[in-house]
Design goal:
By secondary structure, this protein is an alpha/beta fold. Helices cover 47% and strands 11% of the residues.
Length: 417
């Protein structure tokens, strides 16, 4: 009887030990310190004291949000301010097919103490290979480290092509609406989208509201703009498999967005896993979606989730930080993401070391200006630039690799052009 009690007591301690270690790993990434040890303890008697990592100090992550740079209603700064009010500490900005808002979000994040994960939600098309030949729209989230994408230009070429296709798509939607006796002026849609923003369905829907054809966004989508609806039109999206491969190639984490919106999620997940998919959204503000959690488990994919906040207003939209992600969920994501992001950062720095030109210097500071952190020298001295990037991009342990040391040595012997 005594042995049973001991075993029962021990089994209760282990989950707590795992929770503490996962919490420490997440906190140290957030704070920029070295990662904690792997979760391999058999007993909590070996755990060091961790006063900083209490359950009450939970770090709230928001993995899915949009700004006015795509189809959101808020500027990146206003989005970050709202996240701050909601207690969010880590925010991924994932605008559709653009990373134009990330730099502003990073600056606002610095002001409010929020860590920004540079992201993008990429539009794609999935074509079934299992006889039907049916196509459906798929969105793949890409998450990058603080350094941003490696081979940024390759990613931007694809995103730019998708954005260009959005203009033709929106015009085709207006043509279909005209045929439905609901004419809308192109100038109105462009004005609603904003300067330099590729128009999407939300912008067309807002124009429909202004014209008095529908009462709200939900009505516009449910009656006319839903996938394959009477006013729906396709763009120039690449295949979903190509998008996943591109994200992997540019140092990002590829995550399937809102699989519950898909007609054939089983085929999509199976195919994208083969292409290199890392994770699937399974958590929403109303809880875990068991069907997609099971699919993620079958295909050995990490499970995450986010609010998909756009700032439309109303009670039917989940707010920033409303998705309750456990520390274990966040830990599993970071355990997957950090080596990928570290490799991307190393690749970017190696490129700069090989050619420390002003052009490559701009690549290093694409999402964060040199003067953003006080106390870091802001001239173009190579060592100062490297020191700033290493501090912002990597943890202390990640900065102590042979490759990083080689970059330090190389840059110490050269001067920026």
């Amino acid at each position: 009887m005594g042995d049973k009690k001991k075993k029962k007591s021990k089994s209760k301690r282990n989950p707590n030990a795992d929770h503490i270690l996962a919490s420490r790993y997440v906190h140290e990434w957030f704070l920029g310190g070295a990662p904690g040890p792997p979760l391999s303890h058999d007993s909590d008697e070996f755990l060091p004291p961790l006063p900083r990592y209490k359950a009450a100090e939970r770090i709230v992550f928001e993995f899915h949000s949009h700004s006015k740079h795509s189809d959101g209603f808020l500027s990146p700064t206003a989005l970050v301010e709202r996240a701050h009010r909601n207690g969010v500490k880590v925010l991924a900005l994932t605008d559709h097919d653009t990373m134009a808002g990330v730099s502003e979000a990073v600056q606002a994040g610095h002001k409010f103490g929020i860590k920004i994960i540079p992201g993008v939600e990429i539009s794609a098309i999935f074509s079934s290979r299992e006889g039907s030949g049916a196509e459906e729209s798929v969105h793949v989230l890409a998450y990058y480290g603080s350094c941003g994408p490696a081979r940024y230009e390759e990613l931007e070429r694809v995103l730019s092509h998708i954005r260009d296709g959005r203009y033709d798509r929106a015009k085709n939607m207006l043509l279909k609406l005209r045929n439905l006796k609901m004419p809308i002026k192109w100038e109105n849609v462009v004005k609603i989208a904003g300067s330099g923003v590729a128009p999407g369905r939300v912008h067309v829907a807002r124009a429909m509201i202004e014209a008095g054809y529908v009462e709200n966004l939900k009505q516009a989508f449910s009656r006319y703009l839903y996938n394959d609806g009477p006013a729906y039109a396709k763009g120039s999206e690449p295949s979903a498999e190509v998008v996943v491969q591109l994200i992997c190639h540019t140092g990002g984490v590829a995550v399937l967005a809102h699989p519950w919106a898909l007609k054939d999620p089983v085929s999509v997940i199976k195919s994208l896993k083969t292409a290199g998919l890392h994770a699937v959204e399974v958590y929403r503000s109303d809880g875990k979606m068991d069907e997609f959690s099971d699919l993620a488990s079958i295909h050995d994919l990490v499970k995450i989730g986010g609010s998909d906040f756009h700032g439309r207003g109303g009670h039917d939209e989940s707010d920033l930080g409303s998705v309750n992600l456990s520390v274990q969920t966040v830990f599993q994501f970071l355990k997957l993401a950090r080596p990928i992001w570290c490799n991307a950062a190393t690749e970017i720095l190696l490129s700069f070391a090989a050619d420390p030109s002003d052009m490559n210097l701009e690549h290093l500071t694409r999402f964060r200006k040199l003067k953003i952190q006080s106390g870091i020298p802001t001239d173009n001295n190579n060592k100062d630039v490297l020191s700033m990037c290493l501090t912002l991009w990597l943890t202390s342990e990640e900065r102590e690799t042979a490759e990083i040391e080689a970059i330090r040595l190389k840059l110490s012997d050269t001067q920026c052009c």
